[in-house]
Design brief:
about 200 residues; alpha+beta; L,D-transpeptidase catalytic domain-like; 9-stranded mixed sheet; 4 helices; 9 strands; about 25% strand
């Protein structure tokens, strides 16, 4: 081995070492909990002419969008209570289960966009009164209202990545995701919320 080959080999090893040092922080500190939207690669655009609906599966922390052609996309979401149980009464921070509709859409100063649901429905009142009669909730309890689909606090999308249930019973998405849904979903869209 001559002097030139040895010097070239040492220089190459130094470059590899420095490049590796450069990459270590990149891989060591990347966000491994990042939850992203999943899309149907064969379903390029949403047909939102009356056939669009949403299924929210609380146990999977997912909001799925469908149209007459089938599944379109799945968005990561979080809720209120960590128990993921059905809403019993006002103030329990639980997300109700059942069939609802988007009744209004508006920008929101805290949560970017808000799509308000028609909770409570007649079915919710029946469940609420039945639970009261059985003593499962206090006699002076109220059913509550104001349940919707909205974004996170500004710069707090990590709450969705880390499955941090923080709302008062609403469904929360990352801001970029709620912006997309806000544009895709018309008022009247059916929303089915399941355990």
């Amino acid at each position: 081995m001559n002097k030139y080959t040895l010097k070239t080999g040492v220089m190459g090893a130094k470059k590899i070492f420095l490049f590796t040092l450069f990459l270590i922080p990149f891989f060591a500190f990347r966000d491994t909990n990042l939850r992203l939207v999943k899309r149907n690669a064969f379903h390029r655009s949403l047909n939102n002419e009356g056939d669009v609906y949403i299924i929210v599966i609380k146990s999977d922390y997912e909001l799925k969008v469908y149209d007459k052609e089938g599944w379109y996309a799945t968005y990561p979401v979080v809720f209120g209570s960590k128990s993921l149980g059905d809403k019993m009464m006002e103030g329990d921070r639980k997300t109700p289960e059942g069939e609802y509709h988007i009744v209004t859409k508006r920008p929101d100063a805290k949560w970017d966009k808000m799509m308000l649901l028609d909770y409570p429905t007649k079915t919710d009142y029946i469940k609420f009164n039945d639970r009261k009669a059985k003593g499962q909730i206090p006699k002076n309890a109220r059913i509550g209202n104001g349940i919707g689909i909205h974004g996170t606090w500004n710069h707090d999308e990590v709450a969705v990545d880390l499955y941090q249930n923080w709302t008062n019973g609403c469904i929360s998405l990352k801001r970029e995701d709620v912006d997309e849904l806000y544009d895709l979903l018309p008022v009247g869209t059916k929303v089915i919320i399941q355990k």
